[in-house]
Amino acid sequence: NGLVRLLKPGCRTVVLLADQESKPKLLPQFFRAVFPYRKNKTLMFAMLMLEKNLEWYRKILAQALGERRPLNINPKNCIGTVLSLNGHRKYFCMYHAKHMEPVPKKKKESGGDFMGFEDSSSGSDTSDVESGHLLKKQEDTCAADVYSNVLFEEHLLDGLPNWLDRLFEGTTKRYYIQYWPECMK
């Protein structure tokens, strides 16, 4: 509870969710990702063991999603999730390798658009039916789809540094809740 309730206004806690098995692999990666922010006085870094805190995680997810029915959560799917908790304003931001937030698109500057140098895919080889590359590309994607859902523990935190950059820019999605659950251990 100290990770959330004892925070001063304006401070956040960045928390890695791991279990006993994944802890040795994920903790060094988490450390490397947050190391550049170590001198920031408004941040605390922590790790929560899923075995002990799954009920707490379930409660904040249910509040954020507005679910009235109990959530059925597989703890193995939560490994590598990183939460940024703002205890004072009662919201959190979430990083999960399988459920990446869309990166907000910046407005394109019309530097060379009028000259035909626009960055569109309409003139690319993939859209040219006569080139014959379109069929080959579709066959390759079918074979790749079988393995596209597999994500190994070593790669769970690969996108964390980019997410942290967006977090501190303020462009990540915020999930607001009514209260912080009591049962954090």
Descriptive notes:
- With 185 residues, the chain is an alpha+beta fold.
- The protein has a domain at 12-102 and 148-176: Glutaredoxin (3-Layer(aba) Sandwich), CATH 3.40.30.
- The protein has helices at residues 23-34, 50-65, 75-78, 133-145, 160-169; strands at 12-18, 43-49, 82-86, 91-95, 175-176.
- It has a 5-stranded mixed β-sheet, with helices on both faces.
- A hairpin with a 4-residue loop joins β3 (82-86) and β4.
- The longest helix is centred in the N-terminal third of the chain and has 16 residues, at 50-65.
- The radius of gyration is 21 Å and the shape is globular.
- The relative contact order is 0.21.
- Residues 124-139 have low confidence and may be disordered.
- Residues 104-130 are annotated as: Disordered.
- This is Dnaj homolog subfamily c member 16 like.
- InterPro entries: DnaJ_C16_autophagy_reg.
- It comes from Alectorobius mimon.
Q: Which terms summarize this structure?
A:
5 strands; single chain; DnaJ_C16_autophagy_reg; 30% helix; Dnaj homolog subfamily c member 16 like; Glutaredoxin; 185 residues; 14% strand; alpha+beta; five-stranded mixed β-sheet
The count of strands amounts to: 5
| CATH level-two architecture of the domain at 12-102 and 148-176 | 3-Layer(aba) Sandwich
Mean pLDDT: 79
Strand order of the largest sheet: 2-1-3-4-5
Q: With helices defined by DSSP (H or I, 4 residues minimum), what is the helix count?
A: 5
Radius of gyration, in angstroms, nearest whole number: 21 Å
Region (Disordered): 104-130
InterPro entries: DnaJ_C16_autophagy_reg
Protein name: Dnaj homolog subfamily c member 16 like
